[in-house]
Amino acid sequence: xxxxxVARRAALPALVLAVKLVAPGRSAAQxxxxxxxxxxxxxxxxxxxxxxxxxxxxxHFAPDAVVRERSGAVPPEVWDTREPQVVRAYxxxxxxxxxxxxxxxxxxTGHAEIAAWAAGSFARHHRLVAxxxxxxxxxxxxxxxxFADPYQLMPGIGPAEGDAEAVVRGGRIAVLSLVQxxxxxxxxxxxxxxAARRAVATRxxxxxxxxxxxxxxxxxxxxxxxxxxxxxxxxGGLALLAALLERWHRRPPRG
Length: 255
What we know:
single chain, alpha+beta, Nuclear Transport Factor 2, Chain: A, 2 domains, globular
C-alpha cells in the first residue's frame, strides 16, 4: 500500500538523522572545551615534578628555556635577561645596601642546568601544590605552595607560597618564573624563630618531679623535658634549627 502517510513514515528516519547531524546531542553540547595548551603543559610539568621524574620534567622545557626563581628583590634588567653573562655580573657585583638579595635569586638555562636545579630540589623531596591555572595567550599563571626538606620536617613551619608563570611555545616551556611572596618569606621567618625558641625551651626544661637543680631552665613557658629516648631528637632538632637559621640569614628558604 502506498500513499502520503506511508511516504511520510518512510522519510522519518532520514529526518531524525538530519536533525542529529545539525543539532548535536545534550552530552556533546555539555562537554567542557579542551584546556588551552599552556595549561595542559603546566599541569603535565607539575605532575612530572611531583613524581620526581627528571626525564619527563626536562621534556617539558625548550632546549634554551630559562628558569628563574626568587624570594627577594632582583633588578628588572637581571630578572628579564636571557643572557648568562648578565646574571654572572650581577652575582659578582656588590649590592650591599641597595635592597637586592643576590642569594635568593636562582637563574638557570638549558637542559643541563635545569636538570641540576631539578635534581637538587628532588634530593630535598620538593613537591608543589598548584592552584587553578590561569591562561592568557601563550602564558599560564598559578599560585603555588612548595614543600621541601628540611623545613617540612620541622613542626610549625608551613610551606613556601608564591606565584608561578610559564611561557609556553610550541608545546614546551620557554620561561618558568617562581616568585615567593613577601608575606610568605616573613611568615616563615617568624615560624623559624618560634621553632628555635621551642627547641631551646625543650632542651633546657626540668623534668617534672625533680628537686632543685642547677640546670639552666627556660622560664614560665618551658615545656617538659624529653625522655632519654628523645634526647637525640631534641639535640638533633637544635642542630638542624641552628643550621637553618644560619642558612636563612644567607638566603631565604625556597621550599
